[in-house]
Amino acid sequence: LMHRAFRASIFHCIDDPGAASSPAACEYFEDGLLVVRDGAIEAVGNAETLLRGLQPATRIEDFSGKLIQPGLVDCHVHFAQLDIIASYGTQLLDWLSRYAYVEERRFAAREYAAQVANAFLDELLKNGTTSALVFATVFPQSADAFFEAAAERGMRLVAGKVLMDRNCPEELCDDAESAYAESQALIERWHGHGRLGYAITPRFALTSTSEQLEAAGKLAADYPDTWIHTHLAENPDEVAEIARLFPERRSYLDVYDHFGLLRDRAVFAHCLHLDDADRELMAARGGAVAFCPTSNLFLGSGLFDLQSMAASGVPVGLATDVGGGTSLSMLRTMGEAYKVLQLQQQTLPASRALYLGTLGAARALHLDEHIGNFAVGKEADFIVIDPQGSSISARRANAATSVDELLFSLLFLGDDRNIAATYLQGRAAKGQDSLS
């Protein structure tokens, strides 16, 4: 099992296809070979060339007719909202009180949290998602349950317990002191444990007092290699409310910056209602953005301006944002991202959509030294996509005259049926049990 090779068509990004319009941003091998040793990438390239140099004992898995890609990376998702996905019709603040807060109360029970965490992670793997940045709930036991389930599967995940001490139901409140103490205990227990990382997670500035944001900022300074994960400028009413609560700050982003929560490894979901000054500040401080198209459309929040964000030099990764988002499939999410940009006269070729869900997302999360593409030495997290997974994707694949056309069709027609296998560090996580 130490030395294995996988034969199929192979596609991955070595840079952002949107930045340099040079074809060198992506590599495609029609008959490719991915060579894995001890869970890491040893080589990728043309099958004929690489087969000649393989050690005789190397076991070869043949996925001819299928497509190998890096594992998909989800930059923002709520595991505790799995069961309220597709809840009818309201905008952000009403949706939170009507659905999200009601469900999150149940996560005080560790057994319940564990059951949902296991179901959620299995769903991710089934959809080809191998890494994610994840919100738990305010209950530290919900984060513990999540990290345990993640460690068991060997996934590279970053998560954290939520901090909220105002404008939310009383039973979902912590306070500045407990927020610090509970987060610190979780950091000591889980951050850097195997492939896991910890994110300091104030829900958003609306649900944290200045005291709690200050405590979060102190934690971020005390543990500089942790992540910071929150929401920013999702909905116009939310933005107006922040301006009312923090009249002394220039903008919503300035609130986070003031409390020391804007730095490298800080990831902000949504960012729909920002101005140029915000984007410049974000780029200067090293913050990154999670683009959540299905949730922005579903909650009527607005359209994400990828062009301005990229022009400002802010790293962007794609995210499902379930349960406001409507699918855990990153392929489907890429298709929705295309539509969001189409409405703003911006384009999104398939290669760039895939970049935003692999290497781009890994860069946004500061995880690109480990994951995101098939560079030698990176962890061998990858998926096998079967274009024949459904009858309609099969028909479209058979009609495609180029790899771009095939990839593009999969963003709209692909889903968990097209994920033939998901591999974590070279071992089958889903579907291909016989091969693990």
Could you please describe the fold and organization of this structure?
- The protein starts with a strand and ends in a 6-residue tail after the last strand.
- Helix 5 (176-190) runs parallel beside helix 6 (210-222) and helix 15 (391-399) packs antiparallel against helix 16 (403-413).
- Helix 6 (210-222) links the parallel strand 9 and strand 10.
- It has helices at 47-53, 92-104, 110-126, 140-153, 176-190, 210-222, 236-245, 252-258, 276-285, 293-298, 306-311, 330-342, 350-356, 359-364, 391-399, 403-413, and strands at 3-13, 26-37, 40-46, 59-70, 72-78, 129-135, 156-160, 162-163, 196-202, 227-232, 266-270, 288-291, 316-318, 382-385, 419-424, 427-430.
- It has 436 residues and is of the alpha/beta class.
Lay out the secondary structure:
Elements: E1 3-13, E2 26-37, E3 40-46, H1 47-53, E4 59-70, E5 72-78, H2 92-104, H3 110-126, E6 129-135, H4 140-153, E7 156-160, E8 162-163, H5 176-190, E9 196-202, H6 210-222, E10 227-232, H7 236-245, H8 252-258, E11 266-270, H9 276-285, E12 288-291, H10 293-298, H11 306-311, E13 316-318, H12 330-342, H13 350-356, H14 359-364, E14 382-385, H15 391-399, H16 403-413, E15 419-424, E16 427-430
Parallel strand pairs: 1-4, 5-6, 6-7, 7-9, 8-9, 9-10, 10-11, 11-12, 12-13
Antiparallel strand pairs: 1-2, 2-3, 4-14, 14-15, 15-16
